[in-house]
Amino acid sequence: MLICSDVTDPLEPRDSIVSLVDVLVQSVSFRVWDSEAEQRSKCDVVILPDVRGFSTFGFARARDVIARGEAAARAALPRSRPRWRSGASPGGPGPARAGGRA
To answer: What is the value of pTM for the model shown?
Structure first.
């Protein structure tokens, strides 16, 4: 059983990209999401905590982001337990998604 937590920043909506910096950040984020798709497909359970509003170096808010991660992990439990009992492995019916992002 492989449980993964994806804390990659979500892609921004098109209408929020208004400057050259926004375009560059979105371009990098798009490439990261694209490259991680294969990695996520190998997970039995993917936990997606809502990390919007947190910066990579926002250590002062660590407790807040940890709390979001814990909440997303708890939300994944009802969907994950049947997979644990069945001994599901990667390549099975797909990862159980949990968290505040789509």
So the answer is: 0.60
CA terminus-to-terminus distance, the chain: 23
Count the residues in the chain.
Answer: 102
Could you state, in order of their start, the residue ranges of all structural domains in the chain?
A: 3-99
The pair phi, psi for residue 43, each rounded to 5°, is -90, 140
pLDDT in single tens digits along all 102 residues of the chain: 788 888 877 778 889 889 998 888 888 887 887 778 788 888 888 898 888 877 777 778 889 989 999 999 999 888 777 766 666 555 444 444 455 544
CA 10 to chain centre: 8
CB of 7 closer than 8 Å to CB of 51: yes
